[in-house]
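User: I've been going back and forth on whether these two constructs are worth ordering. Before I decide, could you fold them both?

Assistant: Sure. I'll take them in the order you sent them. The first construct and its structure tokens:
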Amino acid sequence: MATIKELLVGGGGGGGTGGGGGSLPLYNASRVVTAGAYSVVVGLGGTAGNSGANGGVGGNTTFNGDTATGAGGGGAVATNGSSGSNGGGAGSSNTGSTVGGNPTGLGYKGGDTFFGAPFYPGASGGSASGVGNSNIDGTTPVNGVAGIANPIDASLGNICGSGGGGIFNAAISGGTATDGGGAGNGTIGPGADGTPNKGGGGGGGSTSTNGGLGGSGFAQFAYKTDGSNGVSASSTGGTITTVGLYTVHTFNSDGTFTIVTASSSSITGVQSITGIQSITF
């Protein structure tokens, strides 16, 4: 039986006035595979929103029937955050409280907004590690939530942080962000984009500036280089690196992962794959 480690990360949500959600990864430490050529689709980050429109929901990343759903976008003014694998942060509140986006599965909700004047800070999105932050008053920017370590290659840094909330103030910036999330901003400029291929959320903007784009997702597959997992190092696709005892294939855009089994010198037809497990964070 041939197995690989599989990591799929969808696109992060775009920022509105609330920060976009970071994607919820799909990770399987022992994904059963057979020889064949498999399409890999990498989700794009969500579009940038503004005071009148929520940030876009991130695109899905897929591999042979497995899907990592993109995260929800941050809310516009007086608008709830959008749903996704992790929800987007609630938009700035000028009429009452607004609510963070709900997760579509086992992810985390975006933060809420309870306070408005004088600077109407937006909430942050949910991330791979937890629920989005809500605003605590009408003056303090709301920071994004940290992501998680990459379970296949920790040297690439943490992934799937959420975007910080925007704020309606020219003198200060919005909420900070990390692990692929974009920082929020005030009226001095747009929210920062999520980092490409980290699955982080875009930062929130203000009444006069846009939010940031969500960061695109990625896919990674790993197997022992010596073939003891049943997969040959002559397999192709993506950017190929070595991490300790493992060969790693990283897809930062769409492509084809061609799996060659260690016990076969040629690729055979694809058959139905069973025994899939999904480990979420």
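The second construct, handled the same way:
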Amino acid sequence: MITSAAFFIVLGAALLHAIWNSLVKGTSKKSLVVFLIGLAHLIFGIVLSFFSAFPPIEAWPYLIASTVVHSGYLFFLYNSYKIGDMSEVYPLMRGVAPVLVTIGAFIVAGELPVGLSMLGVILISFGIMLLSIYNFFFGISYKAVIFSLMAGACIASYTLLDGFGAREAKTALSYISWLFILEGIAAVFIFWIISKKNGLTMDKGTFIQGMLGGTMSCIAYAFVIYVKMTTPLGIVSSLRETSVIFGSLIGLIVFRERPWHFRIFSAIIVTIGLIFIALP
């Protein structure tokens, strides 16, 4: 199922993911921050490529497809945060992914969590989705819902693509380096155009914020791809999406978003799901 080391690696990645998403949400220059995150991916990818083999031809269809999907994900994420609060859109976009990934991994590779692990996936997904229920019915805009669900579909797609692609590449480092290069180029191009269109200019604070977010994003996703090499993708996805708990706490404490009751209750459900996945 999943080792203790892999379990805590993915949880650490989830925390980093929630933090860099909060950096995007908390700035008025969102497109510039996403541009810098893409630039950080490009730089990290180039550096890592010197320490890894060139990916085999079998991995390239996954790399190309994943680059397209990652670009769509960043675009939908950017628009989600322009419209909705972090505690509204983040749980929704991350909550739909584990179920979609589990179904996709079963259809494509016959890979399915069993026993308590499957129950853990269900509980985590339910707890994450519950975080969005209040705002879904009492305040979140329909545009934010659409963008969030599209981002969630992208998350599920690239989770599957990168899981299978890394296995085809044989080494996680080889796949990660070229994925970062390709998606970095795409993100830099897309979000520089958006930033110029919006008349945004770079400043020191935005630069630091974006590069810090990009560094955390690189480390978090590199960890996740490494674990995907040997762990069922549905379990990895479910653990990774617990970032919504960290994200909700950030929204609650830093951005002072409300209500808090659903967040606490959902956090308990997700924690129980985590325990089930961690059990041998």
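Notes on the second construct follow. The chain has a mean pLDDT of 83. The radius of gyration is 18 Å.
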